[in-house]
Amino acid sequence: MRLLTALHEDPDVERMITAPAGSVSRHDLLARAGALAAELRGVPVVAVQATPDLATIVAVTAGLLAGVPIVPVPPDAGELERLHVLRDSGAALVLSDDPGAAGTSGVPVIAISGARRAAGVPDEPPEATPALILYTSGTTGPPKGVVLSRSAIAADLDALAEAWQWTAGDTLVHGLPLYHVHGLVLGVLGALRIGSPLVHTGKPTPQGYAEARGSLYFGVPTVWSRVCAAPGAARALRSARLLVSGSAPLPVPVFENLTALTGQAPVERYGMTETLITVSTRYHGERRPGSVGLPLAGVQTRLVGEGGQIPHDGTTIGQLQVRGRTLFDGYLGAGSALTADGWYPTGDVATIGPDGFHRIVGRAATDLIKTGGYRVGAGEVEDALLLHPGVREAAVIGTPHPDLGEQVSAFVVAEGCTGEELIGFVAERLAAHKRPRVVTFVAELPRNAMGKVQKGRLP
Asked: What is the torsional sign of CA 182, 187, 189, 191?
């Protein structure tokens, strides 16, 4: 089975990939990646310094053509993180145009760019072959290697193509990092499988998105918030067919502003490294603020709690589990991460409505607050805070309380308001037990490269 289906097919695409450093045709990408693939034959695992540029796309394509598992390494990784990833994965080579990309690991570095070109392209390996080893954020210990097969990636991209009506006639635009599912699997491999030309803007700036003139855009909530703050750039996206948001919940005010400025509601989706994308709203379906929609084709979901499965009533919060063709093979060097009956416990908490629509509350460890016998989802309180005109960003967590067990505590980036005012504002819109008892004003919220708030780093 060919994972990069469109890359092998005629007719040629003059600008298959466009990045800040230039463009390559489909034929040129195959020639460059095919030559590098020939050098990788017999290598067990290869790391790629995943800079947001054309060289990374060539290197990843070469690894997939050669049937060698690719380990993307963030270009800004610290030395300890880099050493852990290279040693844990067993990478025999690092592909990079930076001779120092391997740090102090001693792993040889091979340059990606050069004059070499291949006349022929090797056949792709069997579908069960591992394609990528992506390392998790390591919030519960050292980062773990998530092994993703070619078949899981292909199944996910085909399901997304169906849900979003994504075709070779689209031009995909994004500026996301190339070492995560969003930017690499969806944003690069999706284009190479489906055949839509890709414009990578280097960084996901409003100006870059506006100038790209694509039909399909990928972004995280931070990107869409910044686009809304630049109305001229937002209006330039009115000609786009689809705006997709993921990697973190899209705040309802950003959803509404983006809809007003661009003339279309964004599509939201849900997934994680271990499962790829499993739930999404549809191109021809309802796009409901605060919801990530319905399971993709071939994916099943369920909610569980201490007493077993939880009803899909739209209000009861439970821990989300998924199963289907998009699941990972397991953690590198570890056993199965699935339940006895084959479900993957995501660690996220959610509600599912009678109509099947999913709402992600957040991580069970940080976003499910048990206060005074009530279960409060942090995301609901954050959405309420963001309705206040003075609040730009908000993060809510549970903090210890001698009587309640946990209290709802809010951290906000805001101006022109007081903590007491915000507490009252939320109390007018949500049940009394959901109001914050403490509001802390901060200059900014700690976020990772994908725009997710790092709640463990809050004061």
From this structure: positive
